[in-house]
UniProtKB/TrEMBL annotation:
Organism superkingdom: Bacteria
Keywords carried by this UniProt record: Membrane, Transmembrane, Transmembrane helix
The name this protein goes by in its record: TerC family integral membrane protein
Transmembrane annotation, as ranges: 17-39, 51-74, 80-97, 118-138
Length: 139
């Protein structure tokens, strides 16, 4: 590959976009892991442990995907685009939903009925978040 080919706009944008897509895919994978855990694990204590094990990874991956998206947008000189706005709103909504889910998980572990209600809500939330991330990757 020549140096001239590296200076084109497409090749300059290729690596940051690849990194951004890679971490977004890992985020979707983390959601799928938690969704699988919610359906598979019947022991509530083990379920809680496994969910809490993946939780820091979700926050880190969400942060990396968000910041790499901002970086890519900056490389595009903050050009206004419907796609960018949808991705920003989508990642912000996922962050807010995860914070609310995390708060409700702390409250839910006090009683079995609350935990069962939390599991139902978490299944729906993880499914919707996974679909949202996949749709945003396709857009």
């Amino acid at each position: 590959m020549s140096l001239q080919a590296l200076n084109t706009q497409d090749s300059v944008m290729a690596q940051p976009l690849l990194i951004h897509a890679f971490f977004a895919a890992l985020l979707a994978l983390a959601f799928i892991i938690n969704l699988y855990t919610l359906f598979r694990e019947k022991n509530l204590i083990q379920l809680n442990r496994k969910i809490y094990l993946v939780m820091p990874a979700i926050y880190i991956l969400l942060s990396i995907a968000f910041l790499s998206g901002i970086f890519v947008w900056a490389m595009q000189q903050f050009a206004f685009s419907f796609k960018v706005i949808v991705m920003l709103l989508g990642s912000l909504s996922v962050l807010i939903a995860e914070i609310k889910r995390h708060k409700s998980a702390k409250f839910a572990i006090t009683k079995k009925e609350r935990m069962e209600a939390y599991i139902k809500k978490a299944k729906i939330l993880y499914f919707l978040e996974t679909i949202l991330i996949i749709v945003l990757m396709v857009v």
